[in-house]
Amino acid sequence: MKKYSLRNHNTFGLNVFADRFIEYDSEAELLRLIEEGEIISPYLHIGRGSNLLFTKDYEGTILHSRIKDITLLSEDGDSVCLRVGAGNVWDEFVCYCVEHGWQGVENLSLIPGEVGAAAVQNIGAYGMEVKDSIISVETVDISGRRKTYAVEECDYSYRHSLFKTAGMNSVFVTYVNFRLKKSSHYVLDYAALAKALASHCNITLCDIREAVIRIRQSKLPDPKVLGNAGSFFMNPIVSRSYFEDLQRVYPAIPYYDIDAGHVKIPAAWLIEQCGWKGKSLGHAAVYENQPLVLVNQGGAVGADIVRLGQAVQKSVKEKFGIDIQPEVMYI
Ligand SMILES: Cc1cc2nc3c(=O)[nH]c(=O)nc-3n(C[C@H](O)[C@H](O)[C@H](O)COP(=O)(O)OP(=O)(O)OC[C@H]3O[C@@H](n4cnc5c(N)ncnc54)[C@H](O)[C@@H]3O)c2cc1C
């Protein structure tokens, strides 16, 4: 059987193969594929593969949505509600909202991937998370059952949702329903963004989008040029007492308060302190401008990236006693 190359379906640019690759254009087509038994197990629903690390060939069915319609469900003086197909490119949707003057996703400009995955991942950047603009998530499961999850049912937290939990890989997101505001209550708490906009008098959504794009392009490698999956590790959250012990040894350690008992530490700082910035192992490397990003320097296989990730984790554990966990999903 001829296998399907996933090289163009993962931003690490790994040339892995799947037994089968199925795309569908509508919810009705997905339901027909399920009814006719076309989705042979094991299966994995992907978006653009910008948060996936294929460690080997995928011996199963890869599914991909091309549901791209966007419907205006309702509109009043304060907000609009939109039903957005899961297969839309995330950043094209952000651009569409900004052009219409709808606020709520502009800080999430240029994040790679698709709308369905954004709701699975609870993407976040520059002080904003997508969950805050989601009303509900429409799904179809492998038995053909349709279910809409209200945002309260999605169990959203930092880079997490119900859809990432065990057993939920048989649930496919078809549409995401958003509420976007018409107000100008922008989220500008993030220091780098506030600084980039400091000279603007009347800040617009376009200004914010452009500033976010500029900041991102200056910090993050373009996957088309250097294969990567964005932040490879999540920022660890530790108890405040553990943090205070560390702070006595490393007074410059950066942190963000989470609550009275917990503190978040930037994983990038921990990795840099371990001397990994710009270092490579085989064909994989820690990106020189942002140590949270692991890159494929060309010719890497999944195992190279796994090996580098493990070496980085080990160093951080030895030096700081902290377990950093991958944000990227190993397949
Ligand atoms: C350069 C770069 C920068 C990045 N910056 C950020 C950032 O600032 N903030 C951030 O949060 N993330 C960031 N990411 C990570 C990534 O963009 C997000 O996780 C994104 O949401 C993944 O989208 P995707 O379509 O590529 O999904 P994939 O990587 O293909 O899949 C991600 C998960 O979603 C599931 N999935 C995808 N589509 C569906 C569907 N329709 N139904 C059910 N499950 C589905 C997959 O099974 C998988 O579990 C970055 C990545 C890169 C490469």
A few lines on this structure:
By secondary structure, this protein is an alpha+beta fold.
Please characterize this protein's 3D structure.
There is one protein chain. The chain has 331 residues and is α+β, with helices and mostly antiparallel strands. The protein has three domains: 62 residues, Uridine Diphospho-n-acetylenolpyruvylglucosamine Reductase, domain 2, CATH 3.30.43.10; 112 residues, Uridine Diphospho-n-acetylenolpyruvylglucosamine Reductase, domain 3 (2-Layer Sandwich); 104 residues, Alpha-Beta Complex (Uridine Diphospho-n-acetylenolpyruvylglucosamine Reductase, domain 1), CATH 3.90.78.10. The protein contains eight helices and 20 strands. The strands form six sheets. The chain has a five-stranded antiparallel β-sheet with strand order 6-7-12-10-11. The longest helix has 19 residues. The two termini are 21 Å apart. The mean pLDDT is 95. Flavin-adenine dinucleotide binds next to strand 3, helix 3, strand 8, strand 12 and strand 13.
Q: What characterizes the major β-sheet?
A: 5 strands, antiparallel
CATH topology of the largest domain: Uridine Diphospho-n-acetylenolpyruvylglucosamine Reductase, domain 3
Which strand order do you get reading across the main beta sheet?
6-7-12-10-11
User: Globular, elongated, flat, extended or rod-shaped: what is the shape?
Assistant: globular
Low-confidence stretches: none
Strand content: 25-35%
Bound molecules: flavin-adenine dinucleotide
Total of helices:
8
Derived from helix and strand composition plus strand pairing, the structural class reads alpha+beta
- In CATH, what is the class of the largest domain? Alpha Beta
Number of strands: 20
Q: Give the helix level as a range of percent.
A: 25-40%
Please, what is the average pLDDT?
A: 95
Specify Rg, calculated over alpha carbons. 20 Å
What is the H/E order?
EEHEEEEEHHEEEEEHHEEHEEHEEEHE
Instruction: Kindly report how far apart the N and C termini lie.
Output: 21 Å
Number of domains: 3
